[in-house]
Amino acid sequence: MTKRLEGKVAAITGAFSGFGAATASRFVAEGCRVVLGDIQDIDTSEYGDSAVFAHCDVSKEDDVSNLVDLAVSHFGKLDIMFNNAGIVGAVGPIDTIPAEEWSATLAILLNGPFYGMKHAARVMKPQGSGSIISTASTAGLTGGLGPNAYTAAKHGGVGLTKNVATDLCHFGIRVNAIAPAGMATAMVASLMAGDPNAIEEAKRILAEQSPLKGRPGTAEDVANAALWLASDESGYTTGHTLTTDSGVTIGATLEGPAFNERQPMIREAGKEGL
Fold first, then answer.
1. 15 CB contacts (<8 Å, ≥6 apart)?
2. Which of 47, 115, 150, 236 is labelled catalytic?
3. Average pLDDT of span 246-274
4. 246 near 210, Cβ under 8 Å?
5. What angle do CA 172, 84, 161 make, to 5 degrees?
6. How does 13-48 read in b/e, with b if 16+ C-beta sit within 10 Å?
7. Structural domains of the chain ordered from first start
8. Which residues, at least 6 apart from 127, have a Cβ–Cβ distance to it below 8 Å?
9. Which residues, other chains included, contact 155 with Cβ-Cβ below 8 Å and sequence gap of 6+?
10. 30-84, pLDDT tens digit by residue?
11. For the whole model, what pTM was predicted?
12. Which of 10, 159, 205, 274 has its CA 20 to 30 A from that of 54?
């Protein structure tokens, strides 16, 4: 069987761990060559000639531009841009957030994807094809699931995805996003268990909370979603935000839906039955 990304080239930000690292491994296994961007150095030896590293602080436009340029100079083109780098950012009630923390959060979570879309577009337009993917969040689809700055940035990212999709579709470029819930990554393990290495403990906690009984969300779930959006299999999909959230954003809960037990039909004024 032909590998799903055979011959394609991708750039991934936030590739050191979590969603980025899982996606890098999956992409390479599917025949893709990758440029791995992060502020932490990445050893690419496990990928052989299929990967190179670029230092990339996504809050700096020049770093993102250089990441894209490296893909073109080293591998000859760019087919896939995965804007994945992220942090939790500023935390606290709205009246306590320092302006500089607010700005720093949006610089990474909203400006970063903007830079990625901008510079991916400049090399994808001439080739007439490409897939741009950004990591959003369930906090970008509803309120109350994340800190204020994080939620604002992720809502902005979902909106930007939709709008840029309309901007670039005429050039054969698709623009989509992935909205994970809390997944078993180092960042979530740090929040849940106080230890970024406590991935198994995070899985246990998430499995207990998941509407999909006993099933935690993992970095591989996001990598699988990114693979589909990056591949030609999703060739007619653009402007979409794909959730990996066990149904949380459509109201799924541990307890199940309201009125989930059989009873006589409820009619006007409390009357029952036909």
1. 21, 23, 24, 34, 36, 37, 38, 42, 84
2. 150
3. 90
4. yes
5. 45
6. bbbbbbbbbbbbbbbbebebbbbbbbbeebebeebe
7. 9-183+218-270 (3.40.50.720)
8. 77
9. 139, 140, 141
10. 999 999 999 999 999 999 999 999 999 999 999 999 999 999 999 999 999 999 9
11. 0.94
12. 159
Which is nearest to 185 in space by CA: 174, 176, 198, 175? Answer: 198
Q: Which amino acid is at 69?
A: D
Active-site annotation holds for 115: no
